[in-house]
Amino acid sequence: MEFNIERIMILLQRKYGAIQEILRLTKELEEIVNRNDGISAAMILQLRGDEMVKAERCMEELWQMGESSKEAYDKLQVLMTSDLDQAVGATKEEKKIYEIRRRTRTVLDQVQAIDERLNRRLAGDKSFYKIGKLVSAI
After folding, report:
1. How many CA atoms lie within 13 Å of 23's alpha carbon, on the beta-carbon side?
2. Is the pLDDT of residue 79 over 50?
3. Long-range contacts of 94-98 (CB under 8 A, 24+ apart)
4. Is residue 28 pLDDT above 60, yes or no?
5. 70: which of 3, 25, 38, 100 is 20 to 30 A away, CA to CA?
């Protein structure tokens, strides 16, 4: 697959759309859990999983673009892994890529905050987040 910066922007925008939908579904899940509606929660979790698959497919296609050459891989590596607090971009397209990545990070942070609340509420002491903090403190 050929390196195409416009295609990168499109794929990142699609991923951003999927992540926004994950946020919407996660908020809805929180409301459903508060109502103790297990059937609706299962349906929302399935929909959320479908959106995660969409986001992952975008990332797979992005990384396939880097397989065409070492130069393409190196450029993609910079665009996809640069520190967003410092990345500025040399072209209009690169700036747009970093902007989409920043917006995606913001939405993901929101998803994670809600997910952590839900996980702690449902799992208590067995929460992934509680266990993760204990392990990182070791």
Report:
1. 16
2. yes
3. 94/5, 96/9, 97/5, 97/8, 97/9, 97/12
4. yes
5. 100
**Measuring CA to CA, how many Å separate 34 from each of 23, 118, 122, 126?**
17, 9, 10, 19
pTM for the structure as a whole: 0.86
Between 86 and 133, residue with greater pLDDT: 86
- Contact criterion met (CB below 8 Å) for 29 and 118: yes
d(CA 92, CA 138): 44
Structure tokens at 31: 């409301």
Q: How far is it, in rounded angstroms, from Cα 83 to Cα 85?
A: 5
Q: How far apart are CA 95 and CA 25, in angstroms?
A: 29
